[in-house]
Write a structure and sequence with these properties.
Largest sheet: 7 strands, parallel
Number of strands: 9
Distance between the termini: 53 Å
CATH topology: Rossmann fold
Strand order of the largest sheet: 3-2-1-4-5-6-9
Shape: globular
Number of helices: 11
Number of domains: 1
Structural class: alpha/beta
CATH superfamily: NAD(P)-binding Rossmann-like Domain
Helix content: 40-55%
Radius of gyration: 18 Å
C-alpha cells in the first residue's frame, strides 16, 4: 500500500500559518512532502512556505482579494486561523466562522475531487447540541452583514462568543460536509483542548486562569497541549488516510470530553 499520509504532489492552503498551530502544521506539511504551501495570514510567516498572501479575515473584501491571488489548484484547504473573545463579538464571529465559510465558498471550485477542507474548531464548541436551533438559524443567513447583525441582536444566545463561534464551526462542518462531498471534497474539523500558543494569553484573559488550568488537569494526560500535538491530526484529516472520513469533528483533547461524558470530571476545583 502506498504511503497514505504523504503530501507529495499536493498543493495546500493554510490560514493562520504564521504562529501557533498553523506554523507547526506548515513545518509538518513540508516534511510530508507538500508540493506547494500557501499561507493566508495578517502577518508574514517565517516557516518553509512557497507563497504568502496577506489577508484580514474579518473583512470579506480582503478575503475575496486573497482568494484571487492564490495560484493553481488546491488539494487541501486548512482553515485554521482564529481569535479569542477579547477581539469582540463581530471580529470573533467574522474570523472564526464567516471567514471559514467564505473561503470554502470561494475556493471549492479550485479543489479537485478527492480534495479536503479541514477546520480548526475547538472542544469549547462541544455544547452545540444545546443551541443547535439557534446556530442553524444563524448559519442559514448567507449575507455577511446580516449574519453579524443577528449576532448583535442575540447577545444572550451568544454568551461566551469564542465558545459560540466554535459551536457554530462544529455545526457548520457537519452541515457543509454533504454539500462539499457532492463535489468529491471532504469537510472535517479537529477540536483541540487548550493549546500553548501565543493566543493562550488572550484565552487566559477572557476565560481566566482557573478555568484553563482546571480543564488541563482533567485531561487524560495532565499537561497543556502544544502546537505540535495538533499538527498531526490536522495533517491526517487532510491526507488520503482519512479518505472515507467526512463531516467529523475530531476531538483532540487527551480524553477530556470522554471523561466529562462519563461523569469522571472533578468540578470541585472550580467551586
Amino acid at each position: 500500500m502506498s504511503d497514505l499520509f504523504n503530501y507529495e504532489g499536493k498543493r495546500v492552503v493554510v490560514t493562520g500559518g504564521a504562529t501557533g498551530i498553523g506554523a507547526a502544521l506548515v513545518e509538518l506539511l513540508r516534511e510530508l512532502g507538500a508540493e506547494h504551501i500557501t499561507v493566508l495570514d495578517i502577518k508574514k510567516p517565517e516557516g518553509p512556505i512557497d507563497a504568502y498572501v496577506e489577508v484580514n479575515l474579518a473583512d470579506p473584501a480582503s478575503i475575496d482579494a486573497a482568494c484571487d491571488q492564490i495560484d493553481g489548484r488546491i488539494d487541501v484547504l486548512f482553515s485554521n486561523a482564529g481569535v479569542a473573545a477579547n477581539a469582540g463579538v463581530r471580529t470573533c464571529m467574522a474570523v472564526n466562522v464567516l471567514a471559514s465559510r467564505r473561503l470554502a465558498e470561494k475556493l471549492i471550485d479550485r479543489i479537485p475531487s478527492g480534495g479536503t477542507i479541514v477546520y480548526t474548531a475547538s472542544m469549547a464548541g462541544n455544547g452545540w447540541p444545546n443551541q443547535v436551533g439557534e446556530i442553524n438559524e444563524l448559519l442559514d443567513i448567507e449575507d455577511w452583514d446580516a449574519f453579524l447583525q443577528w449576532c448583535d441582536d442575540h447577545p444572550d444566545t451568544i454568551g461566551d462568543v469564542y465558545a459560540f463561534s466554535k459551536m457554530c464551526m462544529q455545526v457548520f462542518t457537519m452541515r457543509n460536509a454533504k454539500h462539499t462531498m457532492a463535489k468529491g471534497v471532504r469537510t472535517n474539523s479537529i477540536c483541540p483542548a487548550p493549546v500553548d500558543t501565543p493566543l493562550m494569553k488572550d484565552f487566559r484573559e477572557t476565560m481566566g486562569d482557573k478555568v484553563i488550568d482546571w480543564s488541563v488537569s482533567q485531561q487524560g494526560e495532565a499537561r497543556m497541549a502544544v502546537a505540535s500535538d495538533m499538527a498531526p491530526p490536522l495533517a491526517f484529516m487532510g491526507s488520503d488516510a482519512a479518505s472515507f472520513i467526512n463531516g467529523v469533528n475530531l476531538l483532540v483533547d487527551s480524553g477530556f470530553t470522554a471523561a466529562m461524558t462519563t461523569g469522571q470530571v472533578d468540578f470541585s476545583a472550580l467551586a
